[in-house]
Amino acid sequence: MSYLKFDKNLMINLEQSLPKEMLRTNKSGAYHCTTIVGCNTRKQHGLLVIPIPEMDDKAHVLLSSLDESVIQHGAPFNLGLHQYGDGVFSPNGHKYIREFNCENVPVMTFRVGGVILTKEKVFISHENRILIKYTLKEAHSDTFLRFRPFLAFRNANDLCIQNDRINTEIKRVENGIATCLYEGYPELYMQFNKPVEWVNDGHWYNGIEYVKDKVRGIPYKEDLWVPGYFELPIKKGESIIFSASTFECDPRDFEKIYDKELESRTCRTSFFNCLKNSAKQFYLKNDKGMYIMAGYPWYNVRGRDELIALPGCTLGINHEEDYHEILATFLKALRRYIDTGETDRTIGEIDLPDIPLWTIWAIQQYRKNKDINICKERYGEDVRYLIEAIRHGKIKNLRLEENGLLSSEGDKSPVTWLSASINGKPIIPRSGYILEFNALWYNAVKFLSSLLEHDQAEEGYKGDLDVLAEKIKESFIATFLNDYGYLYDYVNGTYTDLEVRPNMAIAIGLDYSPLDRRQRKKVLDLCTRELLTPKGLRSLSPKSYAYHPEYLGDPIQREYAVHQGPARPWLFGFYADAYFKVFGVSGLSFIERMLIGYEDEMTEGCIGSLSEMYDGNPPFTGRGAVSTAKNVGEILRTLKTVKEMNKLLTAQTD
Questions:
Q1: How far apart are CA 262 and CA 123, in angstroms?
Q2: DSSP code string of 281-293
Q3: What is the biggest distance separating any 2 CA atoms in the chain, rounded to whole angstroms?
Q4: How many helices (DSSP H) and strands (DSSP E) are in the chain?
Q5: How far apart are alpha carbons 583 and 625 in whole angstroms?
Q6: What is the pLDDT of residues 223-257, one digit of tens each?
Q7: What predicted TM-score, i.e. pTM, was given to this entire model?
Q8: DSSP string covering 102-128, please?
Q9: Cα 146 from chain centroid (whole Å)
Q10: Which of 375, 394, 351 is nearest to 450 (CA)?
């Protein structure tokens, strides 16, 4: 039985099927995203959504959808599905769906009377191109297929409104057409692997609604241009392949390219394989280097997110070379920024003060499964460079104080991952001594010291680091550890923030923590009681007057709620690390049980992936971006840790 398989009863029930989304990317920034029934529910949904660097750094929807119709005896049966006003769906193609299977590639099976038709989709790696394969499994009379392309040609965050500025010109190409609605956009080529009839029949389809956007309190209605339709016969047992791309293709190669792409897929037959497949969807490779996208469908590359996601999305799936290539691209950009102040065009937020600290953490994860000398030879100089850049005040808005701690100003603009703001002003103005900054700082200094162990030439420098680490440790405990046994979230002058937040899990989950085992356990116990959910750690304790568990409402309401309660799966990676540090292998069964909560999500939200956040209260519904790199990465890293702990347990019992 397939791991990701949905039957007729679920598919025809739109209340159950519409919330389930699917995502495929080309690992170069383009993607295809929609619901499992093919009805777009967000403005970012589309069959072919691509970046256009010549225009901006945003994604653009070219081909919104493709309505297929099965024609027998002159009667068309439309398999498409769109939502209009007052909850009206037209056509109602979902009623013909018999099964959706996404084990390898998305495969939808339709039944129209005696006709059984399958539809498979693959996004071609590193090309702005999607292939859709239709196979007629059963038919008792002559059968034709008709295809109506719904065109948008717009920014993925905008909407299209009927206008007279569109270019309606159609260019005939081999087995298809090419068109471009607006100046500045690339041409969209739509072709088949066999001759096809094209009928010019241009119409606007007005008032298509996106229910997810409606719920979010943002514009949600648009008009799409349909220039006409394709029509061609299909025989029983025959497969027809449709291609949508930004360049003209050779139809004779469609089948070969489709099969080759199919061979490279990771079959999603397990929890691990789902996350592995999802991790690779975040890869972005271009002529500047290799990166990890923060998430889909609306995030680009963001420095902190990339670093947190990096170990799990590469080392966690045994893609070590990808780890090195992505990190090399990042280190080059980071050094350039530190040395010259020049930010990177692709990597957003590289100028935030904690970026060097997260970079060292990401390097430290490589060290865990490598000989220390290998790590030192490859990245030792980078770690030292970043430590010294911090010590000598070369990192903007990061100051090393006399007591060894780092301070940062975040009252005017956000500097931490708790970055919600209204009109640019932080909702949570974390300033002064910030908890995770200083935990990462202590960890970084201790890590560099460990790389210099047994290096006599560096004995003096190592001694200097050890003195600094001891100073940081003493100041950290004096500053953050309170009488209640947990850690202040930030301390700014005489102000101590008493809110119980998950940053303390980061502080106790790092390899080198300023806290001893007893202190770690007290903090861990509080995290377990007040923050832990089956979908990650809450961003704020329910005991707080500001607790808001659901990311709902209009944009301002959601911005206020985003860090005041919803849970984040990526924080569970640090919680699990802390749990193993306190309980050792005896903590295995508990962590394995908690991982079930994430496995349950493989058939919810964006199938096979993890959403950006989850409600802090039951039923812990997924919200925000449908697929998020740091969540996938940290759960993969935790799975890897669990595997290693199981090996250790086996060795102990032998």
A1: 10
A2: HTEEEETTEEEE-
A3: 88
A4: 17, 37
A5: 34
A6: 999 999 999 999 999 999 999 999 999 999 999 99
A7: 0.95
A8: -SSS-EEEEEETTEEEEEEEEEPTTSS
A9: 35
A10: 375
Helices (H), 268-371: 271-281, 303-314, 320-340, 355-367
Tell me how crowded residue 137 is: count the other CB atoms within 10 A of its CB: 13
Token pair recorded at residue 648: 């250790």
588 touches 639 (CB < 8 A): no
Q: What beta strand segments (E) does 493-553 contain? A: 495-496, 532-533, 536-538
- DSSP strands (E only) in 113-238: 115-123, 129-138, 143-155, 171-173, 176-179, 188-192, 197-209, 221-234
Q: Dihedral angle at the C-alpha atoms of 604, 277, 643, 640, nearest 10 degrees?
A: -100
Tens of pLDDT, residues 309-356: 999 999 999 999 999 999 999 999 999 999 999 999 999 999 999 999
CA-derived radius of gyration, the chain: 26
pLDDT at 359 over 60: yes
Residue 265 buriedness (CB in 10 A; 0-12 / 13-18 / 19+): middle
| DSSP β-bridge partners for residue 67 | 148
Q: Tell me the HSE value of 333 on the side-chain side, using a 13 A CA sphere.
A: 24
Tokens 């653009």 identify what position?
A: 60
Instruction: Give per-residue pLDDT as tens, 296-316.
Output: 998 999 999 999 999 999 999
pLDDT of residue 2: 64
Residue with tokens 């500025």: 165
The neighbour count for residue 618, using CB atoms within 10 Å, is 9
Question: So what's the pLDDT on residue 1?
Answer: 43
| Cβ–Cβ < 8 Å for 362, 327 | yes
3-class SS of residue 179: strand
Q: Which two tokens mark 607?
A: 């199938």
Q: Are 216 and 556 spatial neighbours (Cβ–Cβ below 8 Å)?
A: no
Alpha carbon distance 308, 34 (integer Å): 27
Mean of all residue pLDDT scores within the chain: 96
CA dihedral 422, 424, 427, 429 (to 10 degrees): -170
Place of tokens 């600094």: 468
Euclidean distance between CA atoms 364 and 308, whole angstroms? 12
* Residue 358 token pair: 């997260």
Of 234, 106, 132, 144, give the one whose Cα is nearest residue 190: 132
